[in-house]
Design goal:
By secondary structure, the chain is mainly α. It has one domain. The protein is built from 6 helices and no strands. Helix 3 packs antiparallel against helix 4 and helix 4 packs parallel to helix 6. The termini are far apart. 18% of the residues are buried.
Length: 171
């Protein structure tokens, strides 16, 4: 019985130590941030706006690492028009450290995701510009071909008219 009480006391002491460990607290806070981002991402637009506004107010009131990460996470995960990759990258960059548990690793992951999303957006914009240029060139070629076809039709009409006149003269 004494052994069980001693084991229970040791387990409670270890759990208490883990709860006081800053890395453990950060990991727990990051888990909460991810849950909040998932919930906000699935919510209606009005709730998304409210969550973003609350995160912005919290960051302005207290610029802690947690509030910075909360705002950056929402800015990086919410759909357009609320998404702001540039601002999210600015917020998360000072915290990003893949060797640091908790905030550092999450910030590094989020930073990488924001950069990748920004690259994909740039690539999509570039592809759209190239498609637009190609469409304009195609339209120019089509117009040139139409004009050539019209010119050929005009020549054909002229030839037919001459042939018709020659037939009339021969009769």
């Amino acid at each position: 019985m004494q052994l069980r009480c001693l084991a229970a006391a040791a387990l409670i002491a270890l759990a208490g130590c883990a709860a006081l460990d800053p890395a453990y607290q950060q990991v727990t806070a990051v888990d909460g941030l991810m849950a909040e981002a998932v919930h906000a991402g699935r919510a209606p637009i009005a709730e998304q706006k409210a969550a973003l506004a609350a995160a912005e107010r919290a960051f302005l009131n207290e610029g802690s690492s947690l509030n910075r990460l909360r705002l950056a996470t929402l800015l990086a995960t919410l759909p357009r028009p609320l998404r702001d990759d540039r601002r999210a990258a600015e917020l998360v960059q000072p915290l990003a450290d893949p060797r640091s548990q908790g905030y550092g690793r999450f910030a590094a992951l989020l930073s990488g995701e924001v950069e990748e999303h920004a690259r994909l957006v740039r690539d999509a914009d570039q592809a759209a510009l190239e498609r637009e240029r190609a469409d304009k060139e195609r339209d120019k070629r089509e117009e040139a071909l139409r004009q050539q076809v019209e010119a050929l039709r005009g020549i054909e009409r002229g030839i037919l008219e001459r042939e018709e006149r020659l037939r009339r003269r021969e009769k």
